[in-house]
Amino acid sequence: MALVVAHRGLGENRGEMRRTTLHETHKRLGARMAPFGGWEMPLWYSSAREEHLAVRNAAGLFDVTHMGVLELSGPGACAFLDRLTTNDVGRLAVGRAQYSYVLDDQGDVVDDVMIYHVAPQRYLMVVNAANDEKVQAWLRAHLLPADDCRLRDLRAPEAGPDQRADLAVQGPRAREILLALLDDPTQRADLEALPYTGVMAARLAGEDVLIARTGYTGERVAFELFVHPARAPALWDALLAAGGAPGLRPCGLAARDSLRIEAGLPLYGHELAGPLNLAPCHIGFERFVKLEKSAAFIGKPAYAQKAAQATAHLVRFRLQARGVRVAKLGDPVLDRRGRVIGTVTSCAQDGEGYLIGMALVERVADIAEGGTIYILALPERPPEPLKPFAPLGSRTLMPEPAVVLPRFPPKRE
Q1: pTM of the model
Q2: Which of 8, 185, 357, 390 is 20 to 30 A from 231 in CA distance terms?
């Protein structure tokens, strides 16, 4: 595997941007908008750092209605999902969710997905916005009449009243905000007892929703709300009103990125697939690929071979100095002797103003938690090579020392 690659702007898009039903709401709140996965999305409202801290200390509200939401239902839905995804859907109880992968025949990642078992013979699958059409095409190409499974796009207008889109409320005070909006007080105990990855139906602020205790921030008190997209703005406003005292803040893509990096969570195109063609076996997520399950999922033999031959793994790091250039996908990672041992996959500023990131490094490299690696953050336009005997005062690129962190931070309860 080639460890150092040229940077590619994975957020770049061509053509007309799509907009969520919350677009005017974001403009009213003064959001800085940016393209992402073919959608125009809020980058931040105040600052990425303030929003990052809001999630860690109180709660943050995210528009994730651009994500794809698919429904798979019928007597054969479970078996079909077990054949198309890597986790064990057969062991997923009603009212629970699981993280999983869709692989192609070569064992490469088509997308990482969340699967929600919302009712007997009925599942929801949430897919990355940029991969929505690709995943739907892949599923439909493998869906046979004998599978006895129906696939619907719940973001499509054809789904009518069953349309669903996703809002995320993340952070230690998220639960109390939802409790304040419950229409039926008899559901209070159910929401208070909802376990991590649990799913329940409810009415919040007059809206019919599915509440899932899941998220992409590393918070354990974390919820995603599936609501009709036309009703998303009303629910968003109700959440912000109820969350005023607890400290709920709207949050954009920048904080979402720094939070997930801090939590060691992958982003498709960076720590999954992308120019490095990364798979779960490279990033510490092997537990979500059940090679031992009875269903022979697509890509299983090729993935098993890929895992056996993996020569690199993912580490988290934190730069030791503030105010240095942000590293990007493809920037080199060096050891203390200046040897290239890997490449940066993601990097962002954490709540304390330090840069945190993830990098793919050689397994043979002498790297331990608490040890030091060196990050060479290349400029967008590399400088011309320095001439011999450069004049005093000229500058050259220097790597920045970074401490190696545990692969995953301690769980927050």
Answers
A1: 0.93
A2: 185
